[in-house]
Amino acid sequence: MLKSHLIQHISKKNPSLSEDIVSRILHTFFSLIVEYLKDNHRVELRGFGAFTVRTY
What we know:
Keywords: DNA-binding. The chain has 56 residues and is mainly alpha-helical. The protein has two helices and two strands; from the N terminus they run ααββ.
């Protein structure tokens, strides 16, 4: 799924949220995940999965 499809889907499911607002929310959400990963923190979203940085 593309990010744009996710934005459209969330906006359709939540008519009070415009695509612009959903886009900003997702941008902030993904930016926070990236920040934590850059600092070598583990990010866990219960019921979805966990993100960690691996070095080889």
